[in-house]
Amino acid sequence: MISGLSVATALLTLTASVNALWPIPQSYKRGDTTVWLSPDVQLVFDSPPEVCFPPSYRYTKRRVQEAWSRTREIIFQERFVPWKFYPRGTKFEPGAGTGKVIEKVFVEQTSVDKPEPARYGEFDESYKLAIPITGGNFTSLGAYGVEAALGGGREPGAVYITAGSSLGVLHAFTTLSQLFYYSNSQPGGVYSRLAPVEIDDKPKFQHRGLNLDVARQWYPKEEILKTIDALSWNKMNRLHLHVTDSQSWPLEIPAMPDLAAKGAYADGLTYSPQDLQDMLTWGWSRGVEVILEIDMPGHTTSIAEAYPELITGRDKQPDWDRYAAQPPSGSLKLRNPAVKKFLTTLFDDLLPRLKSHSQYFHTGGDEVNKNVYNFDENIKSNDSAVLQPALQDFVSYAHAELGRHGVTPLVWEEMLLNWNLKLPKDAIVQTWISEASTKKVIEKGHRVIAGNYNFWYLDCGYGQWLDILPASYKNFYPFNDYCSPRKNWRLIYSYDPTAGLTQEQVKLVLGGEVHAWSEQTDPANIDSVIWPRASAAAEVLWSGRTDATGKNRSFPDASRRLAEFRERLVLRGVGAGPIQQLWCHQNPGGCQL
Ligand SMILES: *[C@@H]1O[C@H](CO)[C@@H](O)[C@H](O)[C@H]1NC(C)=O
Ligand SMILES: *[C@@H]1O[C@H](CO)[C@@H](O)[C@H](O)[C@H]1NC(C)=O
Ligand SMILES: *[C@@H]1O[C@H](CO)[C@@H](O)[C@H](O)[C@H]1NC(C)=O
């Protein structure tokens, strides 16, 4: 919150027809004065010496400059003319010659970036952004020393950004890109009618993610890079890649080339080490950490294409549902030296390549089937009393291997809550099954990434993908999937990952993820499955479910801003569906109930 702010111009609240920002900043004050952005606008990245000189600055500067080029390109090329948000026939564009022209964007980063990859809590993502219309006193920014950096008073006709890290600067640019509109009446012109602007912003949660399943369907690298772009425009900062599963193993592991050569759906449908590196670098440049998940011991049957001896209960048919949540059944064997050797080889190959990008790795652990272990020669049982210690042995081994590489594990909630396994103290647990799960995990002392499937599963409501036999027709009619109905953006927006927690417990919630499992999603519809619904979660995770006064954020405010942001997503090449019929956009307040 800005305190002690003194701005001469009266700042408006919600009267203009465009309101620009998604996710909404913690504090956002704006007016209704026009400013134009010069086509020659320049970035002045000016920071105190202690920020500029450490070796890490090279990276900081590269990240900021790359982000600035992208931001400039978006601002000048996206050509967003917001006619949809004004009543029919309104002349909403400013006339020629009205308003100051912004020539410079001053950016000051106030502290040195932490060495990367960072751990949770090490990066300050906050930023402040101001577009003054007079030379007035911007005390809130002055505190950061921008005035000193500029050699005294502030010039109007500039944007001022201060941030505690390069990631904060990136978020400020993302915000900036949403404040400007394209002028049809003065072609090439880019303006904002929202000046003066004062924004003081920071995320509510540190982990704002999307879980994308790239194993059940194949996604080319470019599709993943595009999704990373869209995440960054939403100020989301994690892409959880569920990169292998029972159905396919697209991830090339040079130490075990057969894994992908035989486990991928087809030749060429794999991610090479270079592809992976490209994803990590792309994410780094956009402030999105890519975290890989190799789910285990369940969801691993595709390993059997190369190493059948490691998998128990492979593709049992036709009663596969006794042995797995989905076909093909199969699980990594337990208490098995060859499996342990496999894990060591896998991690020794993969983790060093990830380590410069993320200190975290997801070992999965959901939906472990018991009956499949009746076939495992060292187990021969489906009794939990037998399986639990064997599973503990397996998971402890995997996590010790991660530990050897200095990597912290993430796991699905079942490992802790259903199997009652002892996990490394710093292990992070991802909840998905129920409202109660998050609290239970916290009570066991672990940090949580939340995402209840009843709210945050993007793949629900698309109907059954199983081929229902004639004899089962009646049981399955009308062929809903298990988590039907589809989670609409309002439902997603109404989910509070911290509901029912004490203030002390909330501290262990790192954030959340929306999930895109790919049974019925592939590159043809990925955009419309993820966007704009993931944006609803993005605002919950960045801004919080409630506003500064503690009230739930309202749909009338959110739907308008989301609709505007959706237009920008579409112009940037993301096929996000519409929020409302146009009439509602053109007639604010006319579609309320
Ligand atoms: C800025 O604020 C200071 C201290 O409050 C005041 O003395 C000065 O006159 C102000 N300057 C302007 C241009 O308003
Ligand atoms: C455990 O396995 C036995 C032997 O196959 C089977 O009869 C029993 O139904 C299984 N238990 C469960 C809970 O599925
Ligand atoms: C606020 O949202 C929560 C869910 O996040 C809901 O349970 C509650 O009823 C809402 N309160 C009001 C007053 O709308």
Q: What does this entry look like structurally?
A:
Pfam families: Glyco_hydro_20 (PF00728), Glycohydro_20b2 (PF14845). GO terms for molecular function: beta-N-acetylglucosaminidase activity. It is an enzyme of class 3 (hydrolase). It catalyses: Hydrolysis of terminal non-reducing N-acetyl-D-hexosamine residues in N-acetyl-beta-D-hexosaminides. InterPro entries: Beta_hexosaminidase_sua/sub, GH, Glyco_hydro_20_cat, Hex-like_dom2, HEX_eukaryotic_N. By secondary structure, the chain is of the alpha/beta class. It has two domains: 199 residues, 2-Layer Sandwich (Chitobiase, domain 2), CATH 3.30.379.10; 337 residues, Glycosidases (TIM Barrel, Alpha-Beta Barrel). Helix content is 31%, strand content 17%. The protein contains 20 helices and 16 strands. The strands form three sheets. It has an eight-stranded parallel sheet with strand order 9-8-7-16-15-14-13-12. Strands 1-2-4-3-6 form a five-stranded mixed barrel. Strands 10-11 form a two-stranded antiparallel ribbon. Strand 13, helix 11 and strand 14 form a beta-alpha-beta unit. Helix 6 runs parallel beside helix 8 and helix 9 packs parallel to helix 10. The longest helix is centred in the N-terminal third of the chain and has 22 residues. The N terminus is likely disordered. The structure holds 2-acetamido-2-deoxy-beta-D-glucopyranose (NAG) (3 copies). One 2-acetamido-2-deoxy-beta-D-glucopyranose binds next to loops.
